[in-house]
């Protein structure tokens, strides 16, 4: 019988504040989340932007937030005029980036998702299987010749980055630019460091606009062309919506999978029994990937939501207009839903993790991320029987980030 959460909560003042974007916190946030689930399941933190955010940490509450329409994705649909006036200034050039599915509510979200879904189908993803396997083999062959690699920079990163680039139609030689831009954007975005963000976004959007213009004149068999041409009756994506969508797909289409492959490999290396079990039973790769998604939490928190009205969760009232962060990394360790939640078990059954979210904003790229993770990790495990860490686990560097959780580097040898 699984334990039930206590009905009373401890005073929030008794819990030490943390910096949720700090690299040291990212290395092991789970004890803190366990304390919150037990004592303060709705907990306020101050972000580097000085904005207050409410961490929601219990599985049931996280699931409800992901489904509840009282939480808006677009802050303009939740905040009062007075609250909106107090929001930090956002440069006008950033406006196209807000026209993506992650930051919109219905009916705009429903319309965009329907148009993009026609271009980004499971059939397209399955067509990529052979290409993913070939690229995986090439990356590992190159690493094997050197006798070692940084598993993040040399494997976990180039695989999904190259694949999403191919799907979209980005020239392969430009992939390094996109990684540099997205890495800068994600790191600087947590603190809204405009000195860094503005030139990065200008370059990013300038490049994308040229690519879109090129596809309007010379269509190709790629996703950018499909987005430019996507229609639902007389409806089609505006210029800003195409820009926002490509930006979202480029960032979300590789960053989360980098974290799954990198952090997932580290989790297996730290648990030789699970690594050996997967090596001996490669058919376990599907449940293994689901367990790694639950355990390492590539997306630690769901993207921002704002309370449309005053809402009470677990005895704590969240004021209207305030930022709410549903902590997927905490929900996935909730003992009410997972036996021995802090243990990695690649044979786990009924694994109802929330790694890809839930509800209308469920990750559109989940099938691609799963497929890339399955092929990458299974091939790595089978082809590298002597795979080992080239450092101690406590020296592994984690990235400082907001929503995501992943490694800066992972040196390994064979």
UniProtKB/TrEMBL annotation:
It comes from the Bacteria. Keywords: Heme, Iron, Membrane, Metal-binding, Monooxygenase, Oxidoreductase, Transmembrane, Transmembrane helix. Signal peptide: none annotated. Coiled coil: none annotated. It holds the Pfam family p450. It comes from Dictyobacter formicarum. This is Polyketide biosynthesis cytochrome P450 PksS. Belongs to the cytochrome P450 family. The chain crosses the membrane at residues 155-173, 185-206.
């Amino acid at each position: 019988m699984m334990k039930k959460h206590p009905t009373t909560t401890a005073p929030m003042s008794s819990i030490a504040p943390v910096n949720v974007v700090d690299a040291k916190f990212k290395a092991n946030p789970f004890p803190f989340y366990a304390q919150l689930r037990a004592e303060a399941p709705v907990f306020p933190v101050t972000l580097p932007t000085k904005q207050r955010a409410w961490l929601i940490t219990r599985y049931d509450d996280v699931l409800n937030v992901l489904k509840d329409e009282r939480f808006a994705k677009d802050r303009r649909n939740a905040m009062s005029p007075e609250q909106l006036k107090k929001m930090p200034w956002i440069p006008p050039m950033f406006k196209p980036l807000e026209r993506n599915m992650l930051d919109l509510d219905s009916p705009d979200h429903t319309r965009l998702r329907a148009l993009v879904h026609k271009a980004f189908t499971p059939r397209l993803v399955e067509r990529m299987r052979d290409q993913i396997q070939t690229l995986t083999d090439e990356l590992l062959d190159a690493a094997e010749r050197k006798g070692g690699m940084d598993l993040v920079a040399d494997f976990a990163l180039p695989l999904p980055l190259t694949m999403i680039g191919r799907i979209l139609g980005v020239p392969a030689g430009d992939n390094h630019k996109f990684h540099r831009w997205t890495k800068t954007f994600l790191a600087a975005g947590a603190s809204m460091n405009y000195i860094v963000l503005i030139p990065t976004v200008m370059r990013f959007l300038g490049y994308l606009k040229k690519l879109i213009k090129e596809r309007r004149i010379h269509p190709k068999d790629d996703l950018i062309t499909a987005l430019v041409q996507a229609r639902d009756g007389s409806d089609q994506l505006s210029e800003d919506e195409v820009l926002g969508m490509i930006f979202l797909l480029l960032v979300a289409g590789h960053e989360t999978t980098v974290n799954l492959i990198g952090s997932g490999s580290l989790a297996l290396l730290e648990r030789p029994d699970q690594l050996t079990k997967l090596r001996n039973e490669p058919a376990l790769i599907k449940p293994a990937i689901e367990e790694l998604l639950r355990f390492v939490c590539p997306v630690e928190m769901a993207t921002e939501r704002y309370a449309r009205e005053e809402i009470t969760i677990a005895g704590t009232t969240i004021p209207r207009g305030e930022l709410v962060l549903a902590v997927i990394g905490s929900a996935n360790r909730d003992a009410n839903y997972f036996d021995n939640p802090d243990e990695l078990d690649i044979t786990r059954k009924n694994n109802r993790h929330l790694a890809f979210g839930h509800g209308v904003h469920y990750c559109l790229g989940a099938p691609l991320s799963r497929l890339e993770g399955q092929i990458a990790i299974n091939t790595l495990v089978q082809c590298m029987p002597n795979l080992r860490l080239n450092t101690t686990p406590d020296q592994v560097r984690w990235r400082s980030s907001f929503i995501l959780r992943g490694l800066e580097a992972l040196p390994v040898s064979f």
